Amino acid sequence: MTTRELLYVKTVADTHNISKAAKKLFVAQPSLSQSLQRIEDTIGTRLFIRGSDGLRLTYAGEKYYQMACTILKIYDDFEAEISDMNDLKTGHISFGITNHLGAIMLPMVMPQFKEECPGIDLDIFEGSTELQEEKLISGDLDFSIMHAPVEDNEPNPSLNYEILARHPFVIAISKKDPLVKLAVPREGYTYPVLDVKLLEDHPLLTLHKEQRIRHVTDSVIKKAGIHPVIKFVSRNYMTLEKLAAEGIGFTLLPSDYINVNLYDNPPAYLSIDDKYSAYWSLCITTVKGAFLSRADQRFLDIIRTNAIK
Hints:
Elements: H1 3-15, H2 18-25, H3 29-43, E1 48-51, E2 54-57, H4 59-85, E3 91-97, H5 99-116, E4 120-126, H6 129-138, E5 143-147, E6 159-173, E7 204-207, H7 212-224, E8 230-234, H8 237-245, E9 251-254, E10 268-271, E11 279-287, H9 294-307
Parallel strand pairs: 3-4, 3-5, 7-8
Antiparallel strand pairs: 1-2, 5-11, 6-9, 6-10, 6-11
């Protein structure tokens, strides 16, 4: 059993397709098929069966896949240690970040990191927090920059969440909406405060259920005890922000995102009372006990410095 064989099985399992896996591995499809056959002959059982959605792992295949992920992660950690020996002259970092957070954070940290460590290659995965957590556990990522689970969502017990900063959410609603006049300025809040309960009869604009902004939104709505009708669902918070400005409904947004984009017709922004815990926490997420190379640690130090500015 070699690391190449482990990688072959893992890649086929991830892509569910021999042809796609061969392209990703830069090997000929017949050669990959033959290698898989030899592996199955050696262990004496099938690892894959063909289903309607492509190749699926058998029970033995699932066990093999779990072992492959573990061993390949150990091998990657070894390579990272070798990079340390090279004093950061060469190396590789693989990390995850959400799409919108990447647009905010990466321009702040990348120039400094590349100036300090020009020989370190970066492999950046942009995806939802759920996908990042899956890739962390499977060993595909060294760490992730994301937002921690909210109160109603249990954190993954295999992961460590290092909280860097907390950012409150705000209500985005049309400036013409009568509720804007009901919001009251209060000390300690950036915008006038509106009681969330007053939004009961307003249509809600929100994101998909796997996105962290949606998690915070659902938690606030639940605490307020209201049941607004969901008018529109999107994966892009900017779409919701623009629709809110046009009076289509209201949406909840993190305050650290609202100054990223400039609009000709922005919505009104209203603060939310602290009792609703309307916030999310920027964090560094790692697998508990995982090895972090010096390159990882230097990149994370730059993230930590910029997160508190």
